[in-house]
């Protein structure tokens, strides 16, 4: 062996060069010709980067020569893909950077191919958020994550490869490259075509190009054929089979779709090389066929700690049935990697050398890649090293903070939030709170609070809940979600395992199963002082807990600790150092949420927690800038909100009576209100809201006497002028487009809408009309483009029109603002939201000034279009979204603007009402009232209210259990029975009926609630003999109103109201109740007859009739709602009613004939035909409401009925002159039956029938 | 147990009228006759007789409740004819028809007896 001494580190570079020279010469002297695998190169002094640039790539001759052979990228890839690198060789490249010497050392046994760098292997299912697909804009700059194969190379090697691919045309250091290429020591070079002497392998392609360019495609094919023939056929076969295999792999990539559908990196030179790699797109992902996977990816999740599919483990667990081969095709996946800010690292970041500086490299797996996977972070969060732990928790927290914005919704194949469902994950987070050192605790609190607290949503909800009809807002517990219906929490909750609980209700788990509140209480007591960030985290968590359920009020000391330590009024003036940095406004917010939730909770807070004095103190604190607490302006806002929340429940009236005049005096007299409002529009908005709340107190069901009503008014009437002035100012600002950039639209719109609401309300009290100035400004505003733009958003952000499933980003219990989408994008669009809220208040305001503001200016083209779209839109099959209530509010206000006789009113109101979610019964009532009132005459409105009042006004009567889902602990559990009292004389006691909205979850457009009043009238009438004759007029009108509603609904929405034959029967039976009242005078009137005729027409034309053309609709044995018995028993009753009582009413007769279609049960129909008084059914063809074809399509096969027909004709009960229509029906039916019999087998019976029939004709 | 005494179905109380007429205000030439202490036996008969009258547009009867021994007959006639007349005529016709029936029945029995004797 060569015994010369080796260079040592620190030796002079010149010495190294000398050593090398020495070595080469000595070897050459012994072995003859020799070329070293690597050489030391002297280089010019340049930047480090350039020095790397100058060096050749690390590459073995084998791959180079292959490249030279084929010149075809695909083939190379094919080869390389198949050969699994077992990682035997290591590749070491070292840069002794400061010296300008690069030593490249390759170990030639390595089979490595530069082209591998660019082949994307199939990533596989990764339980921990592997990268799925790329958002539309997020990574638009283009990025490629390194593929799994890359991990076999060191990061330096990768860099070299990248550089090489960029610079493969100018290998500017011939010494280096030639030394590589010419190396003949490779063992694999035997296959290569002897062209290894060529220095620049890719040049072959360049040479071929001009040659090929001169040929036509056919010529190329011919040449190719010739070439193939010269080759060994076995070789061709081999290459082809390889090619086919490769294709399969690429295909499976497509199907599985976990490969990165990254946008093609546009700016990178290496693009040339990756041209042929197929990038699956997003749509591929959706087409993916899960059956192609050897195992259901979801099931892997159940194996904790298994970051990716590992065949051995899965085989051991007995869950994998496929063979190994198929499994291997899956390759490895790509984990999403994040930096410390919680940002996903994309291709560019992964290549950026800055990642070293950022400390994103570590000693775990994939140490060459920057960033951390979530899995790694979770492991690190349990590290014994506290800094590591803290950093990991911080990063996880940041990741979730980003995730809440929806940033990762489309990027990661698995939502980060779904990780909640894993015990391991949650356990790791919760454990962080119990750590010993402060840093870790602080970070753990930060992390957990970031996970729990979607800040955008919170920001949004604060605004949203201040809009009209926003209350009650839903708890975010699963109790208010359908999800839990099947599980029925409350009963089985205790039995749920922790894992199951996590899946259902993430927060519930934390509150009840992890002692989170105890721990928080401990922190709040100040025994383990947390940092500012930690305190904020604690309050954030509590805010979410408060949003989750009111349980925190009952069974925990946390709130009392907060009151005692953080919001006690004494603390304000004492400039207590303990408050320093503590976000007291968050503490206020916790209370405000609870107060807002229901009056019961508000009372509880008022009684048990002494927060009101400090609220007032903060409001009265004239020098709020000097407050020691964090964000004093937020505290003022929150104080306002709490006060408003209390007042809206009618609580703390005494306090407001004594304090409010002082406050108002303070505001008005010292003009600090102007100061306050100029400081922030949010504040003025809350002042308006407060004034409004005071005025509106009369609406609440509390003991407010008449004089109080006026005292409310006297309190606020001084402010009207100021509010009006401000409103004018605000409208002027909005109306001038050039000012647009100078104000914050969100708050301005919101503030203005509050001002308008107050002014609208105040018009009810004062005799003064709204000032001319305001109306003029309003008129001006309505004509501006700003108004046009806002109205155009109506359509753009309509929830009803988009009728999309507003499923949450969150798997378990986060009622997410993404339902507020309005457009479908991820952001809660608060700007649009507030603009639409402004529209609501504008419409509400204009309602009182319609005489002065023409309707045509209000309802511009945009609104018109929106309304038309709404009218023509199909009813969605999705359950109504919670956030649709705000759109419905706009529609409600808009509807109030339309004149009473406008045809739009009914349809729009009905359409909107059908979209109302269960929790908004007040809104629904109002919409439905409009629908009702526009379906009847003005004189009938009180009656109409009376009929439907029992249903609609349920929640407004204090004695009746409330229907709100989220009002109390039994929220979400629909009450099956509700008692309601009727205003009728027949009322002997409360009647228990089915709860009207029982079926709301299915669809509010159930026939049920349209028809129920009709059934009810019938029940009342039949319950007391003589009741009808005494109240005939009233009953008649009630029936008329009910029928009008049914008529209106059917005219517009028959296909939605009647979807099944059961619906059809229900409508039919409900309408027929009017005939069964026992007095023909009810339905004999001309108006009501016309309504009944229209309903019949709607029934005949509805799609169900067409659908069941050859099947029976009426021949059902199932129970029909509202009928004590089956239809088979109901129909004879109807017939006998006809002959006993009806004056042979024609409409009645038509209804009677409806079940006479031939597909119906013969027993049912014979009831009609054997009726004694059938001869008095004198309908003529021209007067019949039912077309003849309806009753005669199909062939009568029942011989009994045929005989009945004949007998009717024989006996003269039905004659052509008297009963034209029936005669036609009978003769056509007989004729059809005879015709069909003559075609088919005719037995004796038919012959006889025919004979008889012919005789008759003669 | 709760059944009304049987006599209630045929004994008129003091002051109780056998027949009551109520004109229908909404429908021209229509009236409701309430006949106390009668049932389907009479109701159906009168109804069928009324329906045979070409001037009767509508005739129907009902017993509002099976335990309530009364029937309501609703009659509507053509313009030149009142429901009362229609009912009277129907009853007269029924009486004569029934007496004819009785007469014939008696005759038949007589014949039979004579034949046997």
TrEMBL record, chain B:
Does the keyword section mention Glycoprotein?
no
- GO term, biological process aspect, one: transcription by RNA polymerase II
Residue ranges annotated as transmembrane are: none
Sorted UniProt keywords: Coiled coil, DNA-directed RNA polymerase, Nucleus, Transcription
- GO CC terms: RNA polymerase II, core complex
Its biological purpose = DNA-dependent RNA polymerase catalyzes the transcription of DNA into RNA using the four ribonucleoside triphosphates as substrates. Component of RNA polymerase II which synthesizes mRNA precursors and many functional non-coding RNAs. Pol II is the central component of the basal RNA polymerase II transcription machinery. It is composed of mobile elements that move relative to each other. RPB11 is part of the core element with the central large cleft.
Provide the protein name.
Answer: DNA-directed RNA polymerase II subunit RPB11
């Amino acid at each position: 062996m060569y015994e010369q001494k080796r260079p040592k580190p620190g030796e002079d570079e010149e010495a190294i060069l000398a050593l090398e020279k020495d070595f080469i010469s000595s070897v050459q002297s012994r072995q003859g010709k020799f070329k070293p695998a690597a050489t030391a190169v002297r280089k010019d002094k340049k930047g480090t980067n350039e020095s790397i640039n100058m060096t050749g790539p690390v590459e073995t001759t084998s791959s180079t020569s292959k490249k030279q052979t084929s010149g075809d990228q695909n083939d190379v890839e094919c080869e390389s893909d198949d050969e699994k690198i077992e990682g035997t060789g290591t590749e070491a490249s070292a840069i002794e950077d400061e010296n300008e010497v690069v030593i490249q050392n390759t170990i030639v046994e390595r089979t490595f191919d530069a082209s591998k760098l660019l082949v994307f292997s199939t990533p596989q299912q990764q339980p921990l958020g592997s990268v799925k697909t790329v958002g539309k804009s997020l990574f638009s700059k283009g990025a490629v994550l390194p593929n799994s194969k890359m991990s076999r190379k060191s990061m330096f090697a990768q860099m070299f490869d990248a550089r090489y691919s960029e610079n493969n045309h100018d290998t500017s250091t011939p010494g280096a490259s030639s030394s590589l290429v010419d190396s003949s020591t490779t063992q694999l070079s035997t296959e290569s075509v002897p062209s290894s002497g060529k220095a620049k392998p890719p040049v072959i392609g360049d040479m071929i190009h001009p040659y090929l360019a001169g040929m036509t495609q056919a010529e190329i094919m011919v040449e190719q054929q010739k070439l193939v023939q010269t080759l060994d056929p076995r070789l061709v076969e081999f290459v082809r089979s390889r090619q086919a295999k490769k294709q399969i792999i690429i295909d499976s990539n497509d199907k599985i779709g976990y490969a990165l559908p990254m946008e093609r990196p546009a700016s990178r030179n290496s693009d040339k090389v990756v041209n042929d790699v197929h990038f699956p797109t997003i749509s591929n992902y959706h087409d993916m066929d899960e059956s192609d996977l050897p195992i259901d990816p979801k099931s892997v999740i159940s194996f904790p700690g298994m970051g990716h599919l590992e065949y051995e483990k899965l085989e051991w667990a007995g869950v994998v049935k496929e063979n190994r081969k198929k499994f291997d095709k899956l390759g490895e996946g790509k984990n999403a990697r994040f930096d410390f800010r919680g940002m996903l690292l994309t291709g560019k970041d992964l290549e950026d050398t800055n990642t070293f500086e950022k400390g994103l490299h570590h000693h775990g797996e994939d140490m060459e890649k920057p960033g951390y996977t979530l899995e790694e972070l979770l492991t690190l969060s349990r590290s014994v090293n506290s800094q590591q732990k803290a950093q990991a928790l911080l990063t996880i927290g940041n990741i979730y903070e980003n995730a809440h914005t929806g940033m990762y919704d489309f990027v990661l194949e698995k939502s980060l939030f779904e990780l909640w469902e894993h015990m391991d994950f949650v356990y790791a987070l919760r454990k962080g709170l119990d750590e010993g050192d402060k840093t870790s605790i602080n970070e753990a609190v930060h992390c957990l609070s970031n996970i729990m607290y979607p800040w955008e949503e919170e920001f949004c909800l604060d605004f949203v809940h201040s809009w009209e009809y926003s209350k009650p807002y839903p708890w975010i517990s699963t109790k208010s979600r359908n999800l839990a219906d099947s599980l029925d929490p409350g009963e089985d909750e205790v039995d749920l395992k922790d894992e199951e609980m996590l899946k259902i209700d993430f927060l519930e788990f934390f509150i009840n199963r992890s002692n989170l509140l105890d721990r928080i209480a401990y922190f709040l007591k100040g025994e383990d002082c947390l940092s500012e960030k930690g305190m904020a985290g604690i309050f954030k968590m509590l805010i979410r807990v408060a949003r989750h359920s009111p349980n925190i009020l009952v069974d925990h000391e946390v709130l009392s600790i907060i009151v005692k330590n953080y919001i006690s009024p004494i603390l304000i003036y004492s400039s207590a150092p303990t408050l320093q940095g503590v976000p007291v406004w968050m503490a206020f917010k916790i209370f405000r949420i609870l107060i807002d939730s229901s009056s019961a909770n508000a009372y509880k807070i008022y009684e048990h927690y002494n927060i009101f004095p400090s609220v007032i103190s903060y409001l009265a604190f004239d020098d709020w800038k000097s407050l020691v607490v964090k964000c004093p302006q937020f505290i003022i806002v929150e104080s306002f909100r709490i006060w408003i929340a209390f007042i809206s429940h009618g609580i703390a009236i005494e306090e407001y009576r004594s304090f409010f005049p002082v406050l108002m005096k303070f505001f008005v007299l010292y003009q600090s209100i102007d100061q306050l409002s100029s400081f922030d529009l949010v504040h003025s908005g809350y002042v308006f809201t407060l004034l409004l709340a005071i005025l509106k107190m009369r609406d609440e069901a509390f003991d407010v006497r008449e004089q109080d009503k006026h005292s409310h008014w006297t309190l606020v009437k001084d402010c009207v002028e100021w509010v009006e002035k401000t409103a004018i100012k605000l409208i002027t600002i909005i109306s001038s487009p050039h000012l647009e950039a100078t104000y914050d639209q969100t708050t301005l719109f919101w503030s203005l809408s509050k001002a308008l609401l107050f002014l609208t309300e105040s018009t009810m009290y004062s005799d003064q009309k709204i000032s001319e100035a305001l109306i003029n400004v309003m008129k001006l505003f309505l004509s501006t483009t700003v108004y046009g733009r806002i109205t155009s958003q109506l359509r753009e952000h309509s929830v009803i029109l988009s009728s999309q499933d507003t499923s949450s980003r969150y798997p378990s219990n986060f009622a997410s603002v993404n339902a507020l989408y309005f457009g479908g994008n991820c952001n809660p669009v608060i700007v649009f939201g507030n603009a639409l809220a402004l529209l609501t208040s504008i419409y509400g305001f204009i309602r009182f000034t319609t005489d002065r503001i023409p309707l045509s200016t209000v309802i511009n083209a945009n609104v018109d279009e929106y309304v038309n779209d709404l009218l023509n839109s199909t009813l969605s099959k999705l359950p109504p979204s919670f956030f649709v209530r705000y759109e419905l509010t706009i529609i409600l206000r808009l509807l109030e603007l339309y004149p009473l006789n406008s045809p739009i009113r009914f349809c729009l109101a009905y359409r909107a009402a059908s979209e109302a979610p269960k929790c908004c019964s007040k809104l629904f009532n109002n919409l439905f009232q409009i629908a009702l009132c526009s379906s009847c005459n003005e004189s009938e409105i009180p009656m109409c209210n009376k009929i439907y009042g029992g249903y609609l006004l349920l929640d407004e009567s204090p004695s009746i259990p409330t229907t709100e889902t989220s009002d109390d602990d039994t929220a979400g559990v629909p009450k099956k029975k509700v008692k309601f009292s009727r205003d009728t004389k027949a009322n002997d006691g409360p009647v228990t009926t089915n709860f009207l909205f029982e079926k709301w979850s299915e669809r509010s457009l159930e026939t049920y609630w349209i028809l129920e009043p009709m059934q009810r009238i019938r029940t009342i009438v039949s319950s007391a003999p003589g009741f009808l004759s005494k109240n005939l007029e009233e009953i008649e009108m009630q029936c008329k109103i009910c029928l009008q509603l049914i008529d209106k609904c059917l005219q517009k929405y028959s296909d939605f109201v009647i979807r099944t034959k059961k619906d059809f029967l229900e409508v039919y039976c409900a309408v027929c109740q009017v005939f069964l009242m026992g007095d023909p005078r009810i339905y004999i009137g001309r108006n009501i007859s016309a309504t009944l005729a229209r309903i019949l027409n709607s029934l005949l034309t509805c799609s169900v009739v067409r659908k069941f053309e050859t099947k029976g609709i009426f021949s059902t044995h199932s129970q029909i709602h509202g009928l004590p018995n089956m239809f088979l028993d109901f129909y004879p009753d109807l017939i006998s009613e006809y002959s006993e009582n009806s004056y042979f009413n024609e409409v009645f007769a038509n209804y009677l004939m409806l079940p006479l279609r031939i597909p119906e049960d013969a027993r049912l129909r014979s009831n009609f035909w054997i009726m004694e008084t059938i001869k008095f059914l004198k309908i003529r063809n021209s007067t019949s409401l039912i077309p003849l074809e309806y009753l005669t399509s199909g062939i009568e096969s029942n011989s009994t009925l045929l005989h009945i027909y004949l007998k009717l004709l024989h006996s003269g009960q039905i004659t052509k002159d008297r009963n034209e229509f029936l005669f036609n029906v009978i003769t056509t039916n007989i004729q059809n039956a005879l015709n069909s019999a003559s075609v088919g087998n005719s037995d004796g019976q038919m012959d006889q029938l025919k004979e008889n029939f012919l005789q008759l004709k003669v | 147990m709760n059944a009304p005494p049987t006599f209630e179905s045929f004994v008129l109380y003091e002051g109780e009228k056998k027949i009551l007429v109520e004109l229908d205000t909404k429908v021209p030439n229509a009236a409701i006759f309430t006949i106390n202490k009668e049932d389907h036996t009479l109701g159906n008969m009168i109804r069928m007789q009324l329906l045979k009258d070409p001037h009767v547009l509508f005739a129907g009867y009902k017993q509002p409740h099976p335990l309530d021994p009364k029937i309501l007959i609703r009659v509507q006639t053509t313009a030149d004819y009142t429901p009362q007349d229609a009912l009277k005529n129907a009853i007269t016709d029924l009486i004569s028809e029934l007496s004819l029936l009785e007469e014939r029945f008696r005759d038949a029995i007589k014949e039979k007896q004579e034949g046997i004797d």
